[in-house]
Each structure stands twice: as structure tokens, then as C-alpha cells.
Design goal:
The chain is an alpha+beta fold. It is built from 15 helices and twelve strands.
Length: 487
């Protein structure tokens, strides 16, 4: 065989090459078929192919054939000719069949892969009240179909890549050609092509390989399982990254405030949506500053409390032998343990552990005098606030932030909290994702993009796309309310 990869006219040598390339795996099946008086061999990996498709679309066509074989005779989804034996081996591990004929260098690559597709139900962690109730699944082709059903334009472009020398994970980059910035598209392609690893499992591996600041606590790509959320971001000029075997899409570039926007915001009345978003933004501050403020107040600044409230808190602390920082750390760690146990256990048992565990343990440690009732209230409000974040990754980051803030408050009081907030703000202002400021449109400040940050203005006021999306065309709509002025 010339070059060791080009097929020979000798069938036995071709089969020997493929067996050796696949290390003589036991699930490589060979089925001898004679066509037009010539010996042929159908090869496939039993664990990857659809047996019904092989019987119906491949074997039936071969058994009925009496003259020369051509790839047009097969009724599978795709069929092609090739002469590269390495391509044959690669195709087999992707779920294709290979049909070879003795005396011919060319062989046929036939589509026969088996698929297991679950229903496109709404993701449990991103449920909404109004709007579409479908979600991505583990099959890339179906996920792309869901996107194309919502963006019906030839400008929607899909680019495929394979990463991981052993896993060969199929990745799709999706963007709108006349909206996405070409430099941004090229940057994403470059980073994905630069991934050099035996194993790449989406989406966590991809996210860590391509993000700008891997040591930052904050997520720099928005992960979602909702097609409508991906569609909305694509139409703003952003890029979506999807992978075979994962229902999660990564969106880049995004800003900090994108993690506090929910699809529900755009399906309801703008005044109500603005109110709910304001509550979410307030919950961000409450989730990691409330325990720290309580600790600093009790330890350093009790004089700022009203006299009646100060007496109530002092009374609840009389039997507690620990300082406020120990109380807070103990309760926060118990809450994190209960939360992790609720996630890992089966759903019915997990809910029981969360409710019963919280009530029983919370009441027991208060009666034992280890913590005060006031601290129970503070930690409970903190926990509830952290659950208001629509993004799981951002919620996890906020939960971790409260621990250094509590330590700073225990050491330096309100000054420690002030410096903690200052360092956090500086970090958010310095952070970038694919050349986009992470804290935009606050830093740098852009008044025109503030229509969809803390509150949501009416949809008809969004004349331009956000500047941080790096879109080629910023204008996205004309004055849709001009009819009102003509009345």
C-alpha cells in the first residue's frame, strides 16, 4: 500500500490495516458480501451503528445489486467514496459503515450511526413562566435545528471543529455572518483550534481552555440550555459554542449583567420585568454582604443599631459562646453541606434532606446555644438571595464571595467590607472576555446601553444592539412606535 494509507486493490490487506488501526477491537464486525461475482466486505462497529438501518438501507441494496456498485444505490442519509484507509478507520469510530470490494482501491463510507435522542423538554434549572418551553439535548444536530427554526436566514453560519486527540469532541461555532464581528469569530476559532489535550469534555473543559482569566471567580461565558436565549444573543452579534454530547451552549462575549437577565424579562410587561430584575440585582449585594455586615455590626459597630433592636440581638447572643464570625461560618458551612447533599441525592430524598435537615439542625443548634436566632435569619436571607440568580455559575461565585467578605468584616469591621467591595469592583472593571469589558456598560460607562441593565426599558426603545456585543451593525430596529405620532 503506497504511503500506508491509500487503499490497495487487495481486500485482505485493506481489512488488515483497519483491524490494526482499531487495535483489533472486539466490536468491529465484518460481513462478507459477494457483489457481481466479486468478494466484498461490510465493516462496522457494532456498538455505534443502527442495525435496522444496515439491514434496510445497506444490505438490502447490496443483495439486490447485480452489476457495478455505486454510492448512489444506497439509501442511507449520506454515502461517499474514498481511498484513504485512515479516513475509513476514523469513519468507523464515528458510527459509519465501510464497504470494500476486492480488486478496487475505492471503498464506500455509508451513514449508519445510532442515535439516542431524548425529548427537547424545558431545562429544569432554567424554567420560565411565559415563552417557549423547549431546551437543548445531548444531540448536536437537534440543537442546531432548534436554533435554525428561530433564526430563518442564510446568514446563520455553523463551523465545525474536532478537539481532543482521543475523545474527538465535535464542536460547533454558531454566529450570524453579517452581525458577528469577524475579529471576534477569528479569536474564538483560534482559541478552539489551540486546544491540545487527549480529552475534552464539554462544556467545562472548553470554557476553561478559551476564557481570558481562568483564575477569576466569575464566569466569562454564559452557559444556557435554552434555544431562545441563544437566539437572542446571536441576534445581538454574539457567538454560541455547542458540542456533541452536551445540552449546554456557551455564549461569548458577555458582560456581568447578562447573568442577571432572564428570558422571562422579555416575555412579560416591561415594568414588572424591571421590578423583578431590580430585586435580582439587590439580591447580588445581599447574598455576599449581609453576613459580613451583621458580623461587623455586632463586633465593631453595635452603636448604630436602634436601642430596642440592640437589646433584642444582645439577648439572643447571651448563651452563644462563640464570636459572630464563628457563628456565621458554622451556619454557612452547614447550609452548603445540606445543599450539596440535596443535589447529589435522588430528587425525592434530596428535598426531604433539605427541608427536614434545615429545620431539625437549625432548631437543634439554636437550642444548644451554638448560634443565635438572629444569625439563623441572616444566613437564611443570604441563602434565598443567592438562589435568585438565573445563572448557576454566577450563583456559585456569589456564594463563595461571602466567605472572604465575612473574614474581612471580622478583622476590620465596616472598613474591611469597604475595601472588599473596592477590590471586587476593581477586579470586575479590569476583567475582559474576548476583548469586551466585563463590567460594561458601567465601566466603561455607556448611557445608551443602560436600557437593559438594572431595569428593562420597553422593547421598542432598543434601537441599537449593545456595544459590548461587538456587532458589525449596531442598529437593530427603527422607531416601531411611529404610528402613534401619526394618530
Amino acid at each position: 500500500m503506497a504511503g500506508h494509507d491509500v487503499a490497495s486493490v487487495e481486500l485482505s490487506r485493506n481489512i488488515s490495516f483497519i483491524e490494526q488501526a482499531l487495535f483489533y477491537t472486539d466490536d468491529l464486525k465484518k460481513q462478507a458480501i459477494s457483489v457481481d461475482g466479486k468478494d466484498g466486505m461490510l465493516l462496522y462497529i457494532d456498538s455505534l451503528v443502527d442495525q435496522e438501518m444496515i439491514q434496510t438501507h445497506i444490505l438490502s441494496a447490496l443483495y439486490e445489486k447485480t452489476d457495478a456498485v455505486s454510492h448512489q444505490m444506497f439509501t442511507t442519509l449520506s454515502s461517499q467514496k474514498d481511498t484513504d484507509l485512515q479516513n475509513a478507520a476514523d469513519s468507523l469510530i464515528q458510527g459509519y459503515c465501510i464497504f470494500m470490494i476486492n480488486g478496487a482501491e475505492e471503498f464506500f463510507i455509508l451513514s449508519s450511526e445510532k442515535t439516542y435522542a431524548r425529548s427537547t423538554d424545558e431545562p429544569e434549572n432554567e424554567g420560565i413562566i411565559r415563552g417557549p418551553h423547549n431546551g437543548f439535548i445531548e444531540q448536536l444536530s437537534i440543537n442546531l435545528n432548534l436554533i435554525r427554526k428561530q433564526i430563518v436566514t442564510p446568514s446563520l453560519v455553523v463551523r465545525y471543529f474536532y478537539v481532543g486527540s482521543k475523545t474527538r469532541t465535535k464542536i460547533a461555532i454558531v454566529y450570524v455572518q453579517d452581525l458577528a464581528n469577524p475579529e471576534l469569530v477569528e479569536a474564538v476559532k483560534t482559541r478552539i483550534k489551540a486546544i491540545s489535550s487527549d480529552m475534552v469534555l464539554p462544556p467545562g473543559f472548553i470554557q476553561e481552555f478559551i476564557e481570558d482569566n481562568p483564575f477569576s471567580l466569575f464566569p466569562q461565558q454564559l452557559s444556557t440550555e435554552r434555544p431562545d436565549r441563544v437566539t437572542a444573543n446571536l441576534m445581538e452579534g454574539r457567538i454560541a459554542i455547542l458540542a456533541e454530547g452536551s445540552p449546554t451552549a456557551l455564549i461569548a462575549p458577555v458582560s456581568f449583567f447578562a447573568f442577571y437577565q432572564s428570558p422571562d424579562d422579555y416575555h412579560g410587561r416591561w415594568i414588572i420585568s424591571s421590578f423583578l430584575r431590580t430585586i435580582r440585582m439587590m439580591s447580588f449585594l445581599i447574598a455576599f454582604t449581609l453576613p459580613a455586615i451583621y458580623i461587623a455590626t455586632i463586633a465593631f459597630h453595635p452603636a448604630i443599631l436602634p436601642l430596642e433592636l440592640a437589646h433584642t440581638i444582645k439577648k439572643s447572643l447571651e448563651n452563644v459562646p462563640f464570636p459572630a464570625i464563628v457563628e456565621a461560618m458554622l451556619l454557612e458551612l452547614i447550609f452548603e453541606v445540606l445543599r450539596e447533599a440535596g443535589v447529589r441525592l435522588p430528587s425525592r430524598v434530596g428535598q426531604t434532606i433539605g427541608i427536614v435537615g434545615g429545620l431539625v439542625i437549625g432548631d437543634a443548634i439554636v437550642r444548644a446555644g451554638l448560634v443565635s436566632y438572629t444569625m439563623i435569619i441572616v444566613v437564611s436571607l443570604t441563602a434565598i438571595s443567592s438562589f435568585l440568580v438565573p445563572s448557576h455559575e454566577m450563583s456559585s461565585a456569589v456564594r463563595i464571595l461571602r466567605f472572604p467578605m465575612m473574614i474581612a468584616a471580622a478583622l476590620f469591621g465596616y472598613i474591611g467590607i469597604a475595601f472588599g467591595l473596592l477590590f471586587l469592583t476593581i477586579h470586575l472593571c479590569k476583567l475582559e472576555t474576548f476583548g469586551t469589558p466585563y463590567f460594561a456598560p458601567l465601566a466603561p460607562f455607556r448611557l445608551g446601553d443602560m436600557k437593559d441593565v438594572f431595569i428593562r426599558f420597553p422593547i421598542w426603545t432598543f434601537h441599537q444592539r449593545p456595544y459590548d456585543s461587538q456587532a458589525q451593525k449596531l442598529k437593530q430596529q427603527n422607531d416601531s412606535r411611529s404610528w402613534k405620532r401619526r394618530e
